[in-house]
Amino acid sequence: MPSFVKTVLFLFSCLPAFVSSGEAQDRKDFGFDFSGKARVIDGDTLYIGSVKVRIFGIDAPEAGQTCTHEGKSWNCGQEATFALTYMVSPHWIECKKRGSAGPGVVLATCYTGPYDVAAKMVSEGWALSLRSASLDYADEETAARRARKGVWRGTVVPPWVRRTQHP
Questions:
Q1: What are 64-100's pLDDT values in tens digits?
Q2: Which of 16, 38, 54, 152 has its CA 20 to 30 A from that of 94?
Q3: How many Cβ atoms are within 10 Å of 119's Cβ, its own excluded?
Q4: What is the pLDDT of residues 147-159, one digit of tens each?
Q5: What residues have CB less than 8 Å from 138, skipping those under 6 apart?
Q6: For residues 34 and 137, what is the distance between their CA atoms, to the nearest angstrom?
Q7: How far apart are alpha carbons 51 and 24 in whole angstroms?
Q8: 3-state class (DSSP) for residue 139
Q9: Which of 56, 57, 20 shows the shortest CA–CA distance to 39?
């Protein structure tokens, strides 16, 4: 490959590093309210720059939550956090604001490329559809349950129930 082509490819590969300042970028011109690199907090919460984002329409097991599989306990909350981290960490995330999830927390639908992050988390079994907020991901949850993916390979207490049991 000619050195000129290698140089051009190298410069394009570095472009995201030059564009990203670590802060959420305004992307309204593309239909997104903000975007940037994500820092994962748990299976349904992340930071984009200084913006704390709760992913709309899903609820993932809490960071310390355990599930059971074949009579053995496993840390499904940690696995859900790892799954979201694996999904978003190397990518630029773009989000559309859907509301507020409390003081200082934006409720948003987020994408990595063409993929809806919430749909992917639910379809892989690492989050549950939060049907009290939306039915957007109910079909993905049904498919993940049938395929026994993620938390559905065993028994999971829905995160909203667990929070009432362990305030």
A1: 899 999 999 999 999 999 999 999 988 999 999 999 9
A2: 152
A3: 19
A4: 999 999 999 999 9
A5: 129, 131
A6: 22
A7: 7
A8: helix
A9: 20
Judge whether 127 and 66 are in contact, CB under 8 Å. no
| SS3 state at 21 | coil
Task: Give the span between the Cα atoms of 79 and 75, in whole angstroms.
Answer: 6
- What Cα–Cα distance (Å) separates residue 34 from each residue in 47, 51, 94, 159? 11, 9, 6, 27
CA angle 156–143–160, rounded 5-degree value: 35
Confidence label for 10 from pLDDT (cuts 50, 70 and 90) = very low
| 112-141 confidence digits (pLDDT tens) | 999 999 999 999 999 999 999 999 999 999
What does the DSSP 8-state code read for residue 149? -
Q: Give dist(CA 101, CA 46) in Å, integer.
A: 13
